[in-house]
Amino acid sequence: MNKLFKTTAVTVMAALMMGTSASALAHKVGIVDMQQVYKQIPQMAKIEQQLQTEFAERRQELEKIQGDIRFEAEKFKRESATMSDEQKVALREKIQGMQKTLTEKGRPLEQEIKVRQNQELAKVQEVIISTIQNVAKKGKFDEVRVKDTTIYFNPDKVTDLSSKIVDAVSKK
């Protein structure tokens, strides 16, 4: 009788614990495809246009230097057979000087563009994250995950919030 009581008690406890853990795991989960969100929101095109405008003059200067380098290199190929050694050396030095100038001006510009891009992306990311939080709270989601970092999810049990996020961020 005592053994039967212990067995029944253990069985009831196990059933209660499984029921509790199953209900604890049964929560509402959403997923967001961040790449899709970034591609579809109008703020990204606006940032791209803004950065193009901001750095247009300096980019044109670099493109001019690149064009000059190509011109001089083609000139060297065409005319090197008829050039004296001194002319060849002078033209090579001129091309190398232009390449050095291109590098000296190009690297800082690239770095500055990256810094500005990251600043603008951080602003947009803040808006996206706050929007995800608002949508999750309104939809009473217990958890929202990023699709890129999730190995597997069951689409029948997980709600894709990406389009809602795109719509909400686009209105801001």
Automatic annotation (TrEMBL):
* Gene Ontology MF, one: unfolded protein binding
Against PANTHER family, the record matches this protein to:
CHAPERONE PROTEIN SKP
Q: Which UniProt keywords apply?
A: Signal
Q: Cellular component per GO?
A: cytosol
Any Pfam family matching the protein: OmpH
Family per UniProt? Answer: Belongs to the Skp family.
UniProt keyword Signal, yes or no: yes
Report the leader peptide range: 1-26
Q: What is this protein called?
A: Outer membrane protein
One BP term from GO? protein stabilization
Q: Which InterPro entries match?
A: Chaperone_Skp, Skp_dom_sf
Organism equals Pseudoalteromonas citrea
Is Signal included in the keywords of this UniProt record? Answer: yes
